[in-house]
Amino acid sequence: MRRSRHIILTLLLALIAMPLYGQKLSLGYLYPAGGQVGTTVEIEAGGLNINKATKVLFNHPGIEAQVEPLRESAAEKRKRKRLNDQSSPQLADRVKIRISIAADVPCGFYDLRLQGASGVSNMLPFEVASYPNLLETKKRSTLKQPNMVDKLPAVLCGYVTPGGVDHFSFNGLAGQTIVASVKARRLVPYIADAVPGWFQPVMKIVDSQGHEVAYSDDYHHNVDPVIITTLPKDDSYTVIIHDAIYRGREDFNYRVHIGEIPFVTARYPAYGTVGKNIRQRLEGVNLGSTTAKIKATKVGYNTLTHTSDIGTSDGVSFYALPRGVRLSHCPKQGATLANNAAIADSLTAESKVKRYTIYAERGEDVVVELIGRRNGSRIDALMRLRDGFGKVVAEVDDTEDPLQGLMTFHADPVLRYKPERSQVLILEVEDLHRGSGEQYHYLLRRYNSLPSFNAFVAPANITIPAGGTASFRVDINGKVRRPANLVVEGLPEGFTTSSLDLRRSNKWNVSITAPKNAKPERFPIEVKLEYQTPDGLQTADVVPVDNMMQAFYYTHYLQAAELSLDIAEPSPYRLRLSFDVCQHDVAFKMQSDVIPVKVIIDRDAGFDEPVELLLGNKNRIFSLEPISLQAGETEKTVYIKVNQSMLARYRNARNLPYWQMSIVGTVKGEIEKRGKRYFQNAKYRETTPYFTLHPTR
After folding, report:
1. Is 687 exposed, middle or buried (0-12, 13-18, 19+ CB in 10 A)?
2. pLDDT digit string (tens) for 544-572?
3. How many alpha carbons lie under 13 Å from residue 532 in its C-beta half-sphere?
4. Is there a single domain that holds both residue 578 and residue 565?
5. Pairing mode, if any, of strands 423-431 and 659-661?
6. Do 343 and 301 lie in a common domain?
7. What is the enclosing helix (H) or strand (E) of 83?
8. Is there a contact between 472 and 509 (Cβ–Cβ < 8 Å)?
9. What is the reported pTM?
10. How far apart are CA 412 and CA 402, in angstroms?
C-alpha cells in the first residue's frame, strides 16, 4: 500500500507541467471585449490566476470597473472543465467584470488590466463603441437557425468553437449600403499556442436563399475583414463568420460592427505637422460629410475617427511630424529632399516611380526613412539610390520596426548611404508590386542619422510587496555604444535599484527594492538609457511594453500607455544578499565547480515556515539544487553549480561574459488540478536583487 502511494505521488509530481510560483495574473480574452459609450456592460474575462483579481485598471478615467464573483451552475462548471481538458490551461480561470463607460469617453480602444495581490496582468484592448452589443445566443447556429438581429446598427459579439461557424440574421432593404467590420485579431493580437498565432476570421453575407452577396477574408493588409456592400433587394440576410481553418476556442472571439454605419476608407492628406490645422478629404460610405478639419496633438502615429449622426467610424492612421520639420506635399519629379525636411507624396498611374534629388557631401551619412504601410498605406515600398551616372549605389526593400508590435510584415524601408565624394544623388521610390493611386501614399524624411537601436522595458506594470524586491527586463534591439547605463526616474524616497550598469548583453534585468514602510499605491515611473557617442553623452527613452508570444516562438513588443509601479501588501519574509550588488560582481575562477553566495532572510515575528531557495533564472551553465531555509535560520550559503563543459566555449574569448542571477525563495502551497493538468502553487514568492556573475582566468 505504501509502495502504491509512493508511485502515485511520484506520478503526480511528474505531471506538474509548469510551476505557478507567485505567477501573476495573465489575461487571455475578454468577452464581450467592449461596450457602448454611456452604458454599463458586464463581461467575462478568461485567463490564468485571474480569479485572484481584486481590481480593474483602465488607462482612461471615464471608464470604471469592478470585479464581481462569477456564479456558475454545476452544469456550466462541468462544461468548462471538459473545455479545459482540450484547451489551454492559460484560459482556465474566469471572472466577471462590471464596466461603466461615461458618456464623454471617445470611441476607440483602451487598455484593460487586472490587479491582484500577486501583481498586475498583461493588457488586453477593450473597445468603447457607438453601438450596443448583441451577444450570440446559439453557439451552434446554422443558416436555418441563426442568431437573430432585431435592430441595426449593432455590434455582433461571439466566439467560434472548434469547427464552428456562427450565423447572424438581419432584415435589409434594397439600396442600403451595409458595413460589416470585424475586430478579432485586434482583440487578441497574438495567441501563443496557435498557428498562425491569431484568430484568422473569414466573413460573408448571404441572402435568404443562401446566395452569396459579399465576402471578405481580410481588409487590404489587415487580417480582420471588412465588407462594404449595397443590398440588392428587400430580404433577410445572414452574416456568416468562422476561422479560416476552422479552429476555435474562447479567445477566438470577435466583434462585428454592422449596419448603415460610417466607415472611412481613406483620409487625404495622411501626413501633417503636429499642432497645425489640416483640412482633409474623406473617402468612405455613410459619412454625411466628405471633409474634416483636424489638429494632431501627438507627434507620430495618430488614429483619427469620423463621427456622423449615426455613430463613430473606424479609426484611420495619420502621421504627424514634429514642429520645425519642413514638409512639402506632392512636389514635382526631381524635387530636392534636404536634411530636416520631409516630403509627403503618392504613386500615380502616370508615374509609378517617383524620383527626388539629394545633395550629399563626402562622408556625410545619408539616411532616408519611408513611412507608408505603418500609416495605413497600401504601398510595399522599394527605395533605390543612384549616382550621377545612373548606377545603383544603394537599394532597400523592407526594414523591421520593432516599435510596431502589431505588424508581422514590415514593408517600409530605411535607406542608409555614405558617399565617398560630394555628389548629386537620385532617390527612386516605387511599389514592389507596381501599384499606384492615392492609397499608395508615403512620407519621406531625411536625417543625418537615426538611432541604431530601440530599447524596451517589460513588464509595463511592476508589482513589489512592501519591503520586497521585483524586477523588470530591458531589451535592446540593435547596437548601442558602451559604456551605457539605465536610469530609473520617479521612484519615491527609500526605493533602491540594482544592475543599472549595462554590460555587453542586450537583455538586462534591473531590480527595484521597496522600503518596508512603503504604502500600497500605484505610480508611474520612467526608464532612460544613457550611452556615449562621439558627440558626447546621449539619452534615449526606454519604451514600456508587454511581450506577447506568437505561434510558440515569435515574441512581439506591444506598447503600453505607461510604465507603472504597484506597491502590494508585504510578505512575511524578505530576502537579500550579504554584499552590495551595486558595488560588487560575484567573481569566480573559470575552473570553479561551484560559486558560494550567502542569502539572508528577514522573517516577521511568528513566521517560521520553510523557504525553498532556487535560482531565479537558471541556464545550461549554472544550476542550484533546491535548499531550504528552516525555522530559526537567518542566513544560508548556497552553492551554485558550474557546468564546466558548457563554460568551456568561453575559455578563449577575448572578453569574458557576464551573467545575471537572482535567488528566489518560495513557500509552497497546494497542488491544484486544472483540467488534466496539475500545478504547484505558492503561498509566497520573494526574490533577492539581481547580481552579476563574472568569470576570471
Report:
1. buried
2. 999 999 988 889 999 998 999 999 889 99
3. 5
4. no
5. unpaired
6. no
7. helix 74-86
8. yes
9. 0.89
10. 12
